[in-house]
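Notebook, p. 212. Picked up where the previous page left off. The plan for this session was modest: take the two constructs that came back from the sequencing core last week, fold each one, and keep the raw output in the notebook itself so nobody has to go hunting through shared drives later. Recording the first one now, exactly as returned: residue sequence, then the structure token string.
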Amino acid sequence: MHWQSAIITRIEKLSPRVKSFFFRLPEPISFRPGQHLVLRLTALDGYRAQRSYSIASAPGPGKAEELELTIERFDDGEVSPFMHDAAQVDDEIELGGPIGGHFNWSPEDGGPVLFIGGGSGVVPFMSMLRHRAAIGSRVPVALVSQRDCVRICCSSTNYRNWLPSTMALA
């Protein structure tokens, strides 16, 4: 896996337990909507902890120089508490990837499409739906999710531009 040290450029609080972190990449990458990155933390004693987080931003026409990862805080986690409680803008964080080729979708793949997700599982859909909006696709899409997930999406930047008009709340 290719690793690089990315810089946190912005942090947005989406809910009491969810934040979006925006990273500037020294080496821009290409990715498909639905892929994820591995975020790795290294302690002063050399101990490492890593977790995978889905990319929330849409891929661009070229390689991405900035990416958004939306991270839910788990109290017993090794990585998410650090990201929520200690990480700050201008911090350097190791990112690896992108990885994951089995759960991705692009409007070019066709439709109609039904997205069903809960909790942080809605994040890959954010990337897919943002990509759909960015290229002006008319592929029919419906999203079924928990109310909390929709609140998280609706707290996200410019959600009206990409959230589908067809949503069911469980």
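Okay, moving on. Second construct, recorded in the same format:
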Amino acid sequence: MINRILLTGRLTRDPHFEITTTGKRFCRFTVASKRNFRDKKTNKYESDFPSFICFGDVASAVADYLKKGDSVELEGTIQTSIYKNDRGEDVYQTTLVAENVYFGSKPKKQTSAPNDNAADGFVNNASPPQSQTQAYHPTDISVGGEISGVQY
């Protein structure tokens, strides 16, 4: 069996970075991702807004380099946990854990100048050169979320 998520989209808000009392770094963010089909009534594409979490060096990189509107490609897993709520009932929580985060292009700027994006290194919203693309590949993640290694 395979537990793998592959998703592309844009951040809906700036990532939220935290450090636990034990020193573990984590970052939460939400991605808007367009579906492959259109709504029959409006003829517009529908979107989903899944929330992700990442840990360790990947969390630090996401918090340092990404902001609302930035494009990302994510690889990760789905993890489900169970906890008891105030009434003693079991509550199932599903978490999408981003293990690999690939940084994409910046959002289009609303301007009349044809190459206004050139200052950012992205001309006409084309994909950035490979030297400007950041990719983080954690080699190990345990349930609960500590990443032990990152290859650049």
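Notes on construct two before I forget. The chain has a mean pLDDT of 77.
Flagging for discussion at group meeting.
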